Structure formats: structure tokens, C-alpha cells
Amino acid sequence: MSQLKQTLAKKIAEHSVRTQRLLKEFGNVVIDKVTISQAIGGMRDIKALVTDISYLDPFEGIRFRGKTIPETFEALPKAPGSKYPTVEAFWYFLLTGDIPTKEQVDEVLKEWKVRQVVPSYVWDAIRALPRDSHPMVMLSTGILTMQKDSKFAKFYSSGNFNKKVAWEYVYEDAYDLVARIPIIAAFIYNLKYRGDFQVAPDPSLDMGANFAHMIGQCKEYADVARMYFILHSDHESGNVSAHTTHLVHSALSDPYYAYSAGLNGLAGPLHGLANQEVLDWIIKFEEKYLKGAEPTKELIEKALWDTLNSGQVIPGYGHAVLRKTDPRYTAQRNFCLETPGLKDDPLFKVVSMIYEVAPDVLMKHGKAKNPWPNVDAQSGVIQWYYGVREWDFYTVLFGVGRALGCMANITWDRGLGYPIERPKSVTTDMLEQWAANPPQL
Ligand code: HAX
Fold first, then answer.
1. Is 57 an active-site residue?
2. Is 319 considered catalytic here?
3. How far is the CA of 385 from the centre of ligand 1 (A)?
4. Which of 306, 319, 321, 361 to mutate to test the pocket of ligand 1 (most atoms within 8 A of CB)?
5. What is the pLDDT of residues 427-436, one digit of tens each?
6. Which pTM was predicted?
7. Which are the contacts of 207, defined by CB distance < 8 A and separation ≥ 6?
8. What is the largest CA-CA distance in the chain?
9. DSSP class of residue 99?
10. Which residue lies with its CA nearest to atom 9 of ligand 1?
11. What residue ranges line ligand 1, CB within 6 angstroms?
12. CA 187, CA 139: separation in Å to the nearest integer?
């Protein structure tokens, strides 16, 4: 058994004791109350999910396994010649909460290569789709196609299903899925935008460098990929993609079913698709308002108001939990500022100018609870700079990263034996009765 799996087995066994004790001895302790506006309004802020993989503080932003983004980047072993960690090291960290040693990372790097081999029927399935399908449809289909070989599904139907070891089969699928998804994403990119010019993975490279290699990118892009996939990996459990994955898997649907569903949620414009919407907004702004002229704050302000007055949202701004600038935005902005060429890029200048103008506009507009930028406001400009300019692909990149968090989470869901998710609904009549006569809690 690999060191990663052994460590995970030990940690799951230790952690289960805590979960079981909470359930048995403190199951009736009330941690939250639910209001009518929460019940109607998308369950904001209701504390009813448990994960130890990441935690999102409204003002501080995300912590992965207790570490902020800079602390995470600092603590993990780096890719050769890079100041960024390998995605493989981060995978070990997300799963176990431990900073892996070099030896442990090397083992993951090796195992990853074995697991990243994508069955050829995935290519057939993706090729069979209309070529103008959205790349997220291709990614979701590619993932779903692998369901037929799910080790968890086989174990479930084997007649020997055993809840205590079920997590090991989820772990197997989850690990296969995270290793294969970048290869599938690169295939889709090459199929759609590079005339089906397919590039085989290079077994000497880590995941980020390999992704750069497969989509025909320069060596520097390896760091973009590493940073991007790590930043997008997890945002605690309540966001649409993570929650969908958790929900679907809670019915003991295997990781392929679960993550394909999660990707379909990620493809919504209020969630992961916002990164493509940001680029779309900027390009239309340049065409309609600039027509070759230099951007100004006045023109940006006008375009933002026009967007709001037409009933649309400002993509890349606002958040259901965050109440300050997303540190994932800041990490990417710092990357731009530290990268010669990128910090003077015209598109980066527009993105920075929007950052100066949009929060005030949103505050004056008076609706959004959070006028600050989220991760999606900044991510496209980096891709654009490096030549990944097909912005309908940006959510696929998000989906590759998000797989890490979703797969780590459902491995732990099974390890801790979380049950099928099934919240209770009520009727409008009932809400009206409670409104007239609030129940005593
Ligand atoms: N532009 C215009 N209006 C906005 C807004 C924005 N960026 N953000 C919120 N609002 C509006 C909402 O549409 C809502 O309007 P109504 O009362 O008319 O329905 C009102 O402000 C209150 O919304 P909220 O409570 O502040 O925000 P929600 O929790 O309802 O929604 C969203 C959070 C992220 C969906 C929202 O801020 C939004 O639509 N942002 C733009 C899209 C975007 O960037 N999405 C990506 C978010 C991060 C992410 O998941 N990445 O994947």
C-alpha cells in the first residue's frame, strides 16, 4: 500500500472516532437556526455541511487544511526550478492535511503517471459530440464515460460491499479521476482549438508542466497551471460544484457520476462560468466602448452601469460567502504584478481599472452584499496573456482544479460514513403559519 493510502487509512480511522463521538454524545446540540429568508433564499449561511479539507472565512477567504494561500504555497515542496508546489504535493496535503516529504511526493508523482492513462473510449465519446459543444459538455461527458470502469461501482455490486472499506474504492476512483482530468482537458483543448493536434503526456513532467506541454504552451506556463489548479481546488463544501459532487455521491453514486454532475454545476454563469463571462465582458467593452482608444475609468464606469441597468450581473464580482476581495484574486493579481510583461499587459490594465471602479459602482447600485472581486475576475487575463485565448475553455481549467477538492472531500465522506443527503422541505403555507406564530426553538 502506498504511503499516501496508509496515512489516509490511519487518519480516517482516528477521525471516525471524533465523528462518531459527536454523533452519539452530542447529536442534539443545536449549532444553528434557520430563518424564512434562508429557507427561501438558497440556504445562505446555514451550517449544515462538515468538511476538514478547507474552510472559507467571509473576511479572510479560503484556508486549505488550515493554511492560507501564501502559507500553502510556502509550506509545500516545490516543483523543480519553481517557486510553486506541484499539484501532486498539494493532492497529498489536501487528502491528509500533512505536508508531504520529498519521498512522499515522489511516490505520488510516480503513482499519478500510472493512473493518468485515459481509456480510449473516452476519446471516442468526446469526438462523437458536436464539435461546437461547449468544452464543459465535453469534459463532463468524458468524466461520465469512465463510470463503466468505476472501482467503487464494481465493489458496490460485487456482493461483498462493506461500508467500512468503501472509502478505499472511492479513493481509487478519485485518484484516477484527478490524474486523468488534465489529460482529458488537454485533449479537448487540442481537439477544439488546435485542429485535433494531440500531444502525448510526457512521463518526466509533473502535472502542471505536463498540462503546459500537452496544450503546446511555453515552460513558464507550467507555473500558471500549478498555481491555477491549486487555487481553484476547493472552497469548502457549500459551493455548487462541491456541494453537487457531495450530494450525488451521498447516494453512493460513484466518483465519475458525482463529479460529472459537479462539473455541470460549475458550468453555470453564476459559478465557474463567470471566468469566461469576465473575458467576454471585457472584449465586448473594448469593441463597443473603446474602439481602439485607451480605456479610462469613466468609460469603465459607464459600461458597468450599462450592464447593471440591463439587468445583468458584473461577472467576477460578488460572492455568497466572501465579504472582501477574494485572496484567490489577490494571489493571481500578485502573479501578474510579479511577471515581467504581464504587469504591463493591456488586458491586465483593464482588469486592474475595473478593480478600481467596480466596487464603488456596486456599492452605489446597492444590491450586492459583497462588491469585491472573486477568483474569476482575474483568472482569464493570465490565460489570455499566455495565449490561451479561447475563453470558453476557462471553466474547463477551473474544473480540472476543482476535481482535487471534490475528490478529496468524497473520499473523506465515505471514510467517515456520511449518510445520504436529504434536507427537509416545507410548504409556503407552513412558512406563513410560522411567520404569524414563530415557533419557540
Ligand atoms: N453584479 C450585479 N448584481 C449583483 C452582483 C454582481 N456582481 N452580485 C450580487 N448581485 C445582486 C444579486 O443578483 C442579487 O440581486 P437580486 O436581489 O435582484 O436577486 C443581490 O445583488 C443580492 O445578492 P448577494 O446576496 O450579494 O449575492 P448572492 O449570494 O445571491 O450571489 C453571486 C452570489 C456570486 C452569484 C453573485 O454575486 C453574482 O452573480 N456575481 C457575478 C457572477 C460571478 O462572478 N460568479 C462567480 C462567483 C464565484 C464563484 O463561484 N466562482 O466560481
1. no
2. yes
3. 27
4. 319
5. 999 999 999 9
6. 0.97
7. 86, 87, 88, 112, 179, 182, 225, 226, 229
8. 69
9. P
10. 368
11. 239, 270-272, 274, 308, 313-320, 367-370, 374-376
12. 10
